[in-house]
Amino acid sequence: MTKSIKDYANLVKFEHTVFALPFALIGFFLAFRIGAYDFSYFLIIKVLACMVLARNAAMGFNRYLDRQYDAANPRTAKREIPSGIVTPVNALIFVVVNSLLFIIVCWFINKRCFYLAPVALFVILVYSYTKRVTPLCHFVLSSGLALAPIGAFLAVTGEFSLLPLLYSFAVFFWVSGFDIIYACQDIDFDTKNNLKSIPVMVGIKKALILSAVTHLFTLLFVVLAGIGLKSGILYWIGVCIFGVLIIFQHAIVKPDDLSRVNLSFGTTNGIASIVFAAFVIASFYFL
Question: Which tens digits make up the pLDDT trace of 157-172?
Answer without folding.
Answer: 999 999 999 999 999 9
